[in-house]
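STRUCTURE REQUEST FORM
Protein name: SDR family oxidoreductase
Source organism: Cohnella silvisoli
Requested output: structure tokens
Priority: standard
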Amino acid sequence: MTTEKTYESQKVRKISFEGDALRMSMDWSVEDLDKIQVLVESTAGSSHPSSYHLGELAAEMEKGVYQMGGKPAIYTATDICDGVAQAQVAEAGRMLAAAQSLSRRETAFDLEGAFVFLASQDSDFITGQTLNVDGGWMLH
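Status: completed
Returned output:
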């Protein structure tokens, strides 16, 4: 006997059916509603030097979700850079890197392993957690 896995995104649809109407008012089709729904959230933008590259990463995640047969929900939160970084981006980058356990700024490649893990079946039993891939920034 084969049992088909029911994804959390489909369970939520049964108790929060108004979400279907909202999605249909955007770029979702009826077929998309039955797919696994994956949230791809990013703070990409030009307002902060350390998040500028995240748009490319979110686009790659979006492609990966489509390739795996899912439907990505793309959300972008804005980030605001503090005055020090706005005034002196290079110096602020050095200051931020010095405050991390790993004394360098992150790159998109530093996040790749976390994204691959979270998109894999190895993370199926992880819910409601924050995975900080920040070079030790949260330790300080």
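Reviewer notes: The chain has a mean pLDDT of 76. Strands lie at 37-42, 71-76.
Form closed.
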